[in-house]
Design brief:
The protein is mainly alpha-helical. It has 13 helices and no strands. Helix 2 packs across helix 9 and helix 6 runs antiparallel to helix 9. The longest helix is centred in the N-terminal third of the chain and has 36 residues. The radius of gyration is 23 Å and the shape is elongated.
Length: about 280
C-alpha cells in the first residue's frame, strides 16, 4: 500500500524566506555587537576622518572612533528598541482591542474614541515633540513609541475579537454563562493569535524608522551609538560634501533600509497567508 504524503504548506513563501534570512543576519550582527566591550565605537582608535584601511574597514569619524564598531553596536541599539516597542505595543493593543471587543458598549466606545483622537495626530511629529520634552533615554523613547503606535493595531485586533465572538460555539458558551475573558483566552486565541504576528512585524518596522528619524534630528541618546545617531553626525559634520559619505553615511543608511525591507517582506508574506481577503486578492 502506498501512502501519499500531504503537501507541506509554505508558511512564508519566497519573499518571506528572504526577509527572514536578511533579518536573522542582522540580528546575529546585533548580538555580536552586544558582546563587544563597552568602549567599542566610543573610544578613539585612529586619526579623525581616517579612510578605510587594514584594521579599519569603514574608517573613522571626526573624533577618530571606529565606524564599523559604531555600526555593529548601533545594530543592537536600533533593533533592541524596535523589538521592545513591538512587544509592548502588541500587548497594549491586544489588551485594549480585547476589552473593546468583549466589554460593555460604553467601554468600547471610550477606547475607540481615544484611538481615533491619536490617529488624527501625526505620529512622527508627536514622537519628536514628546521626546524633546520628556527626554531621549532608551526607556523613554520606547515608552513614547508604544503609547503612540497602539491605536491601529488595537482596531485590527478588536475587529478580530468581534469576528471570533460571532462564532457559534462561542455564542453558545456565552449563553451558558461562561466568563467572557476566559472564552477569549481559551477559545478565541486560535483566531486572534495569528493577527499578532503582522502587528508585531509592522510595529517593529515603524519603530526603526521613527527612532532613526529622531536620532537623525539630534534628539536621540548621544551616549548610545545607533544608526540614526551616526547619520546625525554625518549631517552635522558636512560629510556629504566629501568622499567620506561612502564609508560613513552609506553603511548605516543601508542597514536601516535592509532591516525595514526584511520586516516588510515578512509582514506582507505572513499577512497574505493569515488574511483570507488578501489571499484571494493575491490569487
Amino acid at each position: 500500500m502506498m501512502f501519499l504524503k500531504a503537501p507541506r504548506r509554505n508558511l512564508l513563501g519566497a519573499q518571506g524566506v528572504i526577509g527572514v534570512g536578511v533579518l536573522v543576519a542582522i540580528v546575529a550582527i546585533a548580538a555580536y555587537g552586544v558582546a563587544l566591550p563597552d568602549e567599542a565605537g566610543r573610544e578613539r582608535v585612529a586619526e579623525p576622518y581616517a579612510p578605510p584601511r587594514a584594521g579599519l574597514p569603514l574608517g573613522s569619524d571626526d573624533l577618530g572612533r571606529d565606524l564599523l564598531d559604531q555600526l555593529i553596536v548601533g545594530a543592537g541599539t536600533s533593533l533592541g528598541l524596535a523589538f521592545i516597542v513591538a512587544v509592548c505595543t502588541t500587548l497594549l493593543a491586544a489588551i485594549i482591542g480585547g476589552a473593546a471587543g468583549i466589554g460593555p458598549r460604553w467601554l468600547s466606545v471610550s477606547l475607540m474614541r481615544g484611538a481615533d483622537v491619536l490617529l488624527i495626530l501625526p505620529e512622527l511629529i508627536l514622537y519628536i515633540l514628546a521626546a524633546a520634552f520628556l527626554g531621549q533615554s532608551f526607556g523613554i523613547r520606547a515608552a513614547i513609541l508604544a503609547l503612540i503606535l497602539w491605536p491601529v493595531p488595537a482596531r485590527v485586533l478588536r475587529a478580530g475579537v468581534l469576528t471570533a465572538w460571532s462564532r457559534g460555539h462561542l455564542e453558545v458558551s456565552r449563553a451558558m454563562g461562561a466568563p467572557a475573558w476566559w472564552l477569549l483566552a481559551r477559545h478565541g486565541t486560535y483566531l486572534i493569535g495569528p493577527l499578532l504576528i503582522p502587528v508585531f512585524v509592522r510595529t517593529a518596522k515603524v519603530a526603526i524608522i521613527y527612532d532613526a528619524t529622531l536620532s537623525f534630528l539630534g534628539l536621540g541618546d548621544p551616549t548610545s551609538p545607533s544608526w540614526g545617531t551616526t547619520l546625525y553626525w554625518v549631517q552635522t559634520n558636512g560629510v556629504f560634501l566629501s568622499d567620506a559619505w561612502l564609508w560613513w553615511a552609506l553603511p548605516p543608511g543601508a542597514a536601516i533600509t535592509l532591516t525595514v525591507l526584511s520586516l516588510a517582506l515578512i509582514g506582507v508574506a505572513v499577512e497574505e497567508r493569515l488574511n483570507p481577503a488578501l489571499r484571494e486578492a493575491a490569487r
